[in-house]
Amino acid sequence: MIVRIPATSANLGPGFDALGLALSMYAEVGVIDESSMPEGALSADDTHPAQVAFVRAGGSGRVWVKNSIPMARGMGFSGAVRVGGIIAAEVQSQGASWSQSSSQALRIGTELEGHPDNVAPSVYGGIVIVSGELVVPVTLACDAVFVMWVPDFSTSTNESRGKIGSTIALADAVFNISRTAMLVTAFQTGDVDLLKEATQDRIHQDIRFASSPACKEALDAGLQAGAWCGWLSGSGPTVALMCSPSQADVIAAALPGSGHTKVLHLDTTGAVIV
């Protein structure tokens, strides 16, 4: 039994803690038994987020993890492997009766992660609006790829979130509400000309860019090279740039050499049992 879970990009600019999408890069989680682990897999220790989630969901024993998602880079590693651990526990107890729609992965994953915007797309795939346990899928009506600029340094989500503060100016809140509405509309209508304005943000990105100016440099370079839009992926430091498939190589080549690029597609499946 192997649980395959996609990487994610959260916030998408203005949709702080409310928007996320799944990407075509994966982690795999399974239960260690008498058979050997897949090549490249590692046994998770007691503090690994996959093992913690597995135990929290009632799993017995230990899980292995095979991962290709960059860790501490804003691409949903911890959320993905937590989802994998929870589903592994459900499969262990339920077997073939496991169902994505009845899984507790969203609830327990959000409890452990602290916010649902990475967890929900890892579970369900695609682009989602999420609030608590309410998940609303958003159709993407254009052919797009995501050029991910992944720097060689990491950031702390908890430290980054702590700098944002607990209050938001009314004008900034209204600004982000309007851009989030524009962004969902642009996705669903395929209006790529609206995307650049629709991904503007006044709540979190400037605060995070101040600590990582190389990320702002990468975002600006990608937009100047022709990307439709871009945003700081999750809490960063990865920067996501959305464009047509024909633009991807040009945009990737324009990004700073202090990071590497990955050209990914939207994963529309979410967590699956392989």
Fold and architecture overview:
- The strands form two sheets. Strands 1, 2, 3, 4, 5, 6 and 11 form a seven-stranded antiparallel beta sheet that branches. Strands 8-9-7-10 form a four-stranded antiparallel beta sheet.
- It has two domains: 3-138 and 268-273, 2-Layer Sandwich (Ribosomal Protein S5, domain 2); 145-264, GHMP kinase, C-terminal domain (Alpha-Beta Plaits), CATH 3.30.70.
- It is 35% helix and 23% strand.
- It has ten helices and eleven strands.
- The longest helix has 20 residues, at 170-189.
- The mean pLDDT is 93.
- The chain has helices spanning 49-56, 77-94, 105-113, 119-124, 157-162, 170-189, 195-198, 205-211, 213-224, 248-254; strands at residues 3-10, 19-31, 42-43, 63-67, 127-131, 134-138, 145-151, 229-232, 239-243, 259-264, 272-273.
- It is globular, with a radius of gyration of 18 Å.
- Helix 1 runs parallel beside helix 2 and helix 2 (77-94) packs antiparallel against helix 3 (105-113).
- Strand 5 and strand 6 form a beta hairpin.
- Residues 61-126 form the GHMP kinase N-terminal domain.
- Residues 184-256 form the GHMP kinase C-terminal domain.
- It holds the Pfam family GHMP_kinases_C.
